[in-house]
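Exam review. A common question shows you a sequence with its structure tokens and asks you to describe the fold in words. Practice with the pair below. Do the first one on your own.
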Amino acid sequence: MTSHQIALVQSTFASVLPIADQTTALFYARLFELDPSLRRLFNGQMADQRRKLTDMLAFAVNQLDRRDVLLPALRELGARHVTYGVQIAHYTTVGAALIWALRQGLGAAFTSEVEAAWTTLYALISETMRSGTLGANAA
């Protein structure tokens, strides 16, 4: 990611934080609309799930300039997700739901440049988590 993309992601995430619960609720609704079979992966309270998603995104956004911290944590998260039943193909659906939810939450502030920055961030997150998933499947 470029420094400009990092700044865009960080500034727009600051705008999402006050509405994080609504945005993550939109995310999960869209996720289950795109792939209803994913609902079975979520056994806990959805409020807890929404908070975990917000926390993970906050961690990623805040560590973008510290890849030495971010990437190992994302690989570990990907490996843990294997135990929840997450499959490689799910990452594409999650990305589509995330970008859609951010577009809903940010409205006019979700410009094409902001979308490109978030898409780049999600590619980094998903590729790194997938590498953790593949490592866990090899073990």
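Now try the second one, then compare your answer with the model answer below.
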Amino acid sequence: MKVIAGGQTGADRGGLDAAIELGLVHGGFCPRGRRAEDGKIPDRYRLEELGSPRYEVRTERNVLEAEATVVFTFGEPEGGSALTLELAERLGRPSLAIDLDTFDDGAAARKLRDFLRKGAFRVLNVAGSRESRSPGIAARVKSIVMHALRPRAERSRRT
């Protein structure tokens, strides 16, 4: 399994941090200048910088490069999260929206694990709300993604 994201604070970094901790391959595409709401995206995230500084360009590229996308929010997706789901639908890519106001971490991890198992996806795009709009989302996403992907990470290390 490879995890990709755009590197924004919040859900993106939670997904990338989970992949790093699990020893999975990670990557994705970010805006020119490694632009994020907190400044420059840290170099520890192995992201490819695009020619455009626009978040929408990065979002579309990550949806295109992934076999599936998961979007984490508190409440209904809006802004970039809604755009991510719209692009996935338009581009014919499977997607899953997880409202963290509705699911606890265990239930969210099971939902993500079931989604991944059904599709046998190898590249997952993790997206969702920014930390400034949804405080605490990065930590929750990291925990959920780690629990959902841990069995896959253990299998890949054995082979």
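Model answer, second protein: The longest strand covers residues 68-73. The chain is about 45% helix and 20% strand. Full marks require stating both points clearly.
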